[in-house]
Every structure is written in structure tokens, then in C-alpha cells.
């Protein structure tokens, strides 16, 4: 059980980091964008860039990569909870997709669209924060009792190998500052470090088992960038269609 405790503490630390980033961005939106009558293109690009980065960071957590697959194999007791977690994830994704569909690349966003943007971002942040809360309060408790000791050793080893590989990449100067890159497994990180995210014909990033925000390169706006909250971002921005 000491291995289980160690593993769950390590996953909780990762949760805290992602939660802090979500709360920081949520606070930025509430304190700035919600009080504006319009939003500039640079602010809109900045918001979408952060949303994409945060979504990726949530998806590439160790809980998602290692604990949940092990729990699915160990028991069916978590199936209902995992379905609920997936619904929260889809709610976050849907809120941003709706935002992308309704907004064009305009130089200035009207007041009614400001409300739409802020509501979508609020839904996004609230959904992912709720998912993190349920994982810590419910998923971890089920995992502690359902997963066998030898499987905990396997998960702990995966976590250590993950961190070891990450440190090797950092020493080699291969790891960018973006948290989403730091959370990716070896094969995906290596591919993305060599260039931009691979996009398939339908405009979706190719990630196993999950649709994520489409990513394209956009020209940098000449307008001054909005003040940055304490979240890390990538250089790829969600497509604004």
C-alpha cells in the first residue's frame, strides 16, 4: 500500500499544477475580459492558445495515461465514474468547439460575443476543474482498493520512467517550456518537438482515443498581446473558423 500511496501523492501533485493553471486563466478572464465591451483579435488568439494548451495539459496527465487504463483493466466498479469524467471532458471540448464555430477571425469582437466567449471559457474551466476534483475524491479512492499491489508497482515504475525520460530530454535541451510537451509520452513528444502537431485531413490533431482542438498556425497580430496569467502556452493556436 506504500507504493499506492506514493503513486497517488505523485498524481495529486500533478493535479495541483494543472488546477493552478486552470484557476489562473479563469481568474484572468473574470478580471479582464468579462469587464470589456469588446475583445481584440490578439486577445482572442491569446485566449484560444491558452485553452488549447490547458486542454492538452489535462489530457496528457499521468492519471490519464497510466492510472485510468490500469483501473479499467482491474475493475468495472469505476466504469460509471469514468463515463462521468468523460462527459465533463466532452463538455469542456464542446464549449470551445461551439466558440470556434460562432466566431470568425475579426479584428474586434462585439459585446454580445464577449459574453459568449466568457461563458464558453467559464464552462471549459469549470468542467475540467470538476473532473480533477472527482478524480481526486472518487477515482483515487476506487483505484486504491481495486488495483492490486503488483499493478501499483508497475504504475509507479511507469511514472519514474516517465520522469527519468523527461529529465534526459531537459538535459539535452529538447524539452520546451510548455507544460503540455512536458506531460507527453516519449513517442509523441519526440514527434512534436521535431515540428508542429500532426493534423489529419479533417483538421483534428491525431491523438489516440480523443478528439482535441484543431490546431493551425496563424499570423501574429500586430496588436499588443494581452497580459499573461501564470499559465504556460504553446505556439500552436486553435483554429478560428
TrEMBL record:
Keywords tagged on the record: Coiled coil
Q: Organism's domain of life?
A: Bacteria
Coiled-coil zones: 71-102
Its recorded name reads Hemerythrin-like domain-containing protein
Origin organism lineage = Bacteria, Pseudomonadati, Pseudomonadota, Betaproteobacteria, Burkholderiales
Amino acid at each position: 500500500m506504500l507504493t499506492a500511496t506514493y503513486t497517488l501523492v505523485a498524481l495529486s501533485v500533478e493535479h495541483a499544477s494543472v488546477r493552478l493553471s486552470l484557476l489562473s486563466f479563469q481568474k484572468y478572464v473574470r478580471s479582464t475580459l468579462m469587464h470589456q465591451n469588446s475583445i481584440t483579435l490578439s486577445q482572442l488568439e491569446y485566449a484560444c492558445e491558452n485553452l488549447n494548451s490547458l486542454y492538452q495539459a489535462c489530457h496528457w496527465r499521468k492519471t490519464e495515461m497510466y492510472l485510468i487504463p490500469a483501473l479499467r483493466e482491474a475493475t468495472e466498479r469505476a466504469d460509471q465514474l469514468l463515463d462521468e469524467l468523460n462527459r465533463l471532458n466532452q463538455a469542456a471540448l464542446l464549449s470551445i468547439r461551439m466558440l470556434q464555430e460562432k466566431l470568425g477571425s475579426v479584428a474586434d469582437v462585439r459585446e454580445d460575443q464577449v459574453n459568449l466567449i466568457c461563458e464558453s471559457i467559464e464552462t471549459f474551466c469549470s468542467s475540467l476543474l470538476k473532473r480533477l476534483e472527482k478524480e481526486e475524491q472518487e477515482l483515487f479512492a476506487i483505484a486504491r482498493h481495486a488495483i492490486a499491489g503488483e499493478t501499483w508497482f508497475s504504475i509507479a515504475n511507469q511514472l519514474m520512467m516517465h520522469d527519468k525520460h523527461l529529465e534526459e530530454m531537459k538535459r539535452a535541451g529538447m524539452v520546451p517550456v510548455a507544460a503540455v510537451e512536458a506531460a507527453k509520452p516519449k513517442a509523441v513528444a519526440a514527434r512534436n518537438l521535431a515540428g508542429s502537431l500532426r493534423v489529419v485531413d479533417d483538421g483534428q490533431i491525431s491523438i489516440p482515443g480523443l478528439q482535441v482542438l484543431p490546431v493551425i498556425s496563424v499570423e501574429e497580430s500586430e496588436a499588443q498581446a494581452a497580459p499573461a496569467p501564470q499559465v504556460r502556452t504553446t505556439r500552436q493556436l486553435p483554429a478560428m473558423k
